[in-house]
Each structure stands twice: as C-alpha cells, then as structure tokens.
Amino acid sequence: EDVIKAIEKMAVPQVEKIEGEQKEIVPSRVEKIMAEKMQLSKREIPHFYLTVEVDFSEAVKLREDLIDEFGDEIRISYTDFLIKACAKALHKLPKINSHYIQGKIISFSRVNIGLAVAREEGLVVPVIKDAHRKGLFEIAKERVELVKKAMEDKLSLDDIEGGTFTLSNLGMMQIKNFAAIINPPQVCLLATGEIKDRPVAIEGEVFVVPVMEMTLSCDHRVVDGYLGSKFLQEVKKNLEKPALLLV
User: Which GO terms describe its cellular component (predicted)?
Assistant: First the structure.
C-alpha cells in the first residue's frame, strides 16, 4: 500500500525535498510558447521518423570553391545548402509542404523554410520565404540577417510567420543524428547532424568520405513512409549533386 501511494505521488510532478540549494527558473515568454507548442505536437501528431546518410564529398568541394571565389562577399554555409536542397524537394513534392488543420491538408505553392535558432531566451524559428525561388547566395545573405536579428531579439512578426517546413541543424554541435519534434501545423521537420568522415564501400573499394545523417520527422496523418522516403531521396540527390543547387 505504501509503495502504491509512493507511485501515485510520483505520477504528479512536484518539487521534491532534495538537500542543497534550489533555484526556480522562470521560463521566458518564448520558452513558454515553445513548450506549449511542442507538448501539443507530441500529444496530437502521430510522429514517425526516417533517416538517411548523405555523401557530402561534392558539396564540400563546391562550398570551398564558392568561399575561395566569393568569401569576401558572403560566406556560404552547409545550412544554406540544406535550405536550398529542401526547397527544391518541397517544390517537387508539395504534399510535404503542407499544414494539417482540423482534418484538412492545406498544400502551399510558396516554400517558406523555418530555421530553428537556439538562444538563451529560447528557441525561435525565423522563416526564409520563397526559398525555392532564391539562389544560394540570396539564401545565405537572408540566413545571416535573420540569425543576427534572432540573437539580438529583433525579429519581427513577419520574420517568424508563414513557415511551411522547418530545418533544425545541430551539426555545428557535433551531434551525429537526432529526431526532432514537428512544428505544428507543419507536417514534417528535417533534423541534420554533423558531417563526419566515414569509410564507405563504393564498387567494391573502401573510401573515406564526408557523410551527414539526416532524420525526417513526419506526421503520419499526411505523410506515409513512401512519400517521406521520396522527399529524403530528393534532398540527398540535391546535396550529392550540388551543382543542381546553383540552377
């Protein structure tokens, strides 16, 4: 009986009596909003996850060439490659570029990609609008401006509204892979890890190549395994043949 009471007590979150100093941390307004949104997402969205490995050999070379040639003007990052690769894939597969609201799927012609930006004040997701129509350098310039505004807490309402898909890149934190929570009412989110050299067998020979793992979180009410896989294959193709991103 005492054990049952203890279990019932543990089921209700409460402050435990733990020796030592305790400090209550009051969440910021942004953190509260994000917490409520993520709780809603996990409670209502039937998530499933698909992971793929991408050979970044050609993307690494192209980025180095672009930095050598244009580095003084704008420094292209791998995040810019990812945004553009996703934008092309979303434009080709519009059902991924959708919202799910009250039992209805609303697909958009505009591809507006949100980029998760972590700050001490809480996570924010500024949006690069019409990413499918923008070149790599235009995306890079806009990303730099939006991240700067995010870190300085100067984002406008227009900067964070209208997202149709979200990218969360933790590669710079040496994270190998992770599965993220979908940003409702969007139906997918792409989580990307670090680029790391790995041995890969190609036509019977072993080569060391830079590889990134990426995981697509999908809302199973809208996206099935086949469609999610098609999207990842499109993104993979765009990154493994990065000249496509310059078109």
Answer: cytoplasm
Q: Is residue 80 part of a domain?
A: yes
Q: Which of 43-52, 120-129, 163-172 has the lowest mean pLDDT?
A: 120-129
The whole-angstrom separation of Cα 57 and Cα 100 is: 36
DSSP-derived secondary structure letter, 11: T
Amino acid at 75: R
Pairing of strands 165-169, 188-202: parallel
Residue 23 lies in a domain: no
Q: How far apart are the two ends of the chain, measured CA to CA in Å?
A: 70
pTM of the model: 0.91
* DSSP SS3 for 162: coil
Boundaries of domain holding 220: 47-246
The tally of domains found in the chain comes to 1
Q: Is 47 a catalytic residue?
A: no
Looking at residue 222, which CATH number applies to its domain?
A: 3.30.559.10
Whether 26 is covered by a domain: the verdict is no
Mean pLDDT for the chain? 93
Choice among 47, 91, 99, 220 that is catalytic = 220
How far apart CA 50 and CA 45 sit, in angstroms, is 16
Length of the chain: 247
Distances from the Cα of 40 to the Cα of 58, 132, 181, 185, angstroms = 40, 29, 10, 10
